């Protein structure tokens, strides 16, 4: 689990850093576009750079403002996000959730004027803008979509679930604040570039650049901290047992083993053999201190049933377990414990088995048996 948490932190950290670079790049693009007087953008072909980009800032001028349908406020562009609350029943369970009905943008053509002369701005397409929220709640004008019934085009509805209600969020570009705009110059007008959106902001050029740089710095700092915190978690995996390794000696603190699926010939009561597929892990065990030992195995995962078993064999291949494996408390399907005979120093082989298809990771340990008597 710690490994996955650490990897998740590394991914989130990388995304944060990437987001920081993205906002830094946006700020760079705004600074790279020539900042001109509105009259220069409208009348001087040299106002734009080689790619046709330019920016300007001024007061909004329009003879035919739009009217935002929910708030009734005059504007030059509005965005409506419409959602519906749906109650659905599945598998005997009922749940409610909000689903998107429409994501609706309406724009117009207007002018910006900083006092030097107006330049036409086109926002019929979607814009990259800090829109001002002017309404949030059930659509006005009656039940259902109310006044929006003839305005938005709902997404296809497959008729699943009961609609409990609607809500709409309205955001606009109003007429009451100076506006910064950056786009591509076409015939003395400013519009969205061929591969991108028209950038519009009420914060002005410097305010917009500053905001994007702040977001970039925060995203990169947080992403770097999260990624840095994830590295030791991936390496050290706190709370997780370390791998047991290839060779064990005497007592062993709890460690993790990974079993693999194998097919073995299992001896039947009548002496015949039968192929059986199960999970198996073979461990080499060196005993330097004569005595009796207890061996334990349990699932690392809480779910599933592996019915683990342990067998200890001497160098001649004879089992040296006393009696049979038995489960620990009520979790016998997920854990086991066994005890050896009194062992002399030497090399032994430990087989850890579990049922096919169960979790492959088991936690294993060896301890001196309680009241053990060493061989003389």
Description:
This protein is about 20% helix and about 45% strand. The protein is α+β, with helices and mostly antiparallel strands and about 375 residues long. The protein folds into 2 domains: about 35-205, no CATH class; about 245-370, Sandwich (Jelly Rolls). The strands form 5 sheets. The chain has a 5-stranded mixed β-barrel. Strands 14, 16, 17, 19 and 22 form a 5-stranded mixed sheet that branches. A 5-stranded antiparallel sheet has the order 15-23-18-21-20, with no helix packed on it.
Q: Return the average pLDDT rounded to an integer.
A: 89
Query: Can you give the helix content as a percent range?
Result: 10-25%
Number of β-strand runs: 23
The SSE string, one letter per element, is HHEEEEEEEEEEEEEHEEEEEEEEEE
Indicate the topology:
Blueprint: H1 2-32, H2 38-43, E1 53-61, E2 66-67, E3 74-75, E4 77-90, E5 93-107, E6 109-113, E7 118-122, E8 127-129, E9 132-137, E10 162-173, E11 179-186, E12 189-191, E13 198-201, H3 204-236, E14 247-249, E15 252-258, E16 260-267, E17 273-287, E18 293-299, E19 309-313, E20 321-326, E21 335-340, E22 346-355, E23 361-368
Parallel strand pairs: 7-12, 8-13, 14-17
Antiparallel strand pairs: 1-6, 1-11, 2-3, 4-5, 4-10, 6-7, 9-10, 11-12, 11-13, 15-23, 16-17, 17-22, 18-21, 18-23, 19-22, 20-21
Helix pairs in contact: 1-3
């Amino acid at each position: 689990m710690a490994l996955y948490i650490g990897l998740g932190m590394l991914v989130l950290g990388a995304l944060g850093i990437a987001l920081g670079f993205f906002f830094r790049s946006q700020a760079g693009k705004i600074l790279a576009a020539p900042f001109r007087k509105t009259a220069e953008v409208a009348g001087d072909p040299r106002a734009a750079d080689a790619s046709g980009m330019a920016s300007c800032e001024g007061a909004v001028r329009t003879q035919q403002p739009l009217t935002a349908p929910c708030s009734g406020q005059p504007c030059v562009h509005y965005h409506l996000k419409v959602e519906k609350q749906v109650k659905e029943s599945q598998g005997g369970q009922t749940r409610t959730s909000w689903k998107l009905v429409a994501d609706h943008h309406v724009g117009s053509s207007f002018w910006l004027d900083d006092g030097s002369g107006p330049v036409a701005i086109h926002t019929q397409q979607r814009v990259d803008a800090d829109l001002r929220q002017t309404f949030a709640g059930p659509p006005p004008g009656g039940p259902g979509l109310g006044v929006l019934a003839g305005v938005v085009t709902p997404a296809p509805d497959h008729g699943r679930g009961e609609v409990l209600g609607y809500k709409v969020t309205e955001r606009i570009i109003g007429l009451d604040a100076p506006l910064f705009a950056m786009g591509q110059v076409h015939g003395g007008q400013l519009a969205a570039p061929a591969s991108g959106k028209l950038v519009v902001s009420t914060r002005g050029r410097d305010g917009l650049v500053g905001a994007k740089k702040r977001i970039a710095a925060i995203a990169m700092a947080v992403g770097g901290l999260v990624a840095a915190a994830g590295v030791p978690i991936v390496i050290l995996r706190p709370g997780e047992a370390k791998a047991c390794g290839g060779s064990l000696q005497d007592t062993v603190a709890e460690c993790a083993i990974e079993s693999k699926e194998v097919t073995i010939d299992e001896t039947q009561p009548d002496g015949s053999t039968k192929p059986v597929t199960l999970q198996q892990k073979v461990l080499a065990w060196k005993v330097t201190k004569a005595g009796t030992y207890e061996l334990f195995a349990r699932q690392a995962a809480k779910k599933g049933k592996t019915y683990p078993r342990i067998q200890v064999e001497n160098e001649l291949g004879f089992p040296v377990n006393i009696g049979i494996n038995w489960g620990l408390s009520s979790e016998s399907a997920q854990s086991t414990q066994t005890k050896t005979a009194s062992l002399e120093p030497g090399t032994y082989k430990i087989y850890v088995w579990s049922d096919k298809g169960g979790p492959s990771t088991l936690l294993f340990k060896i301890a001196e048996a309680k009241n053990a008597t060493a061989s003389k």
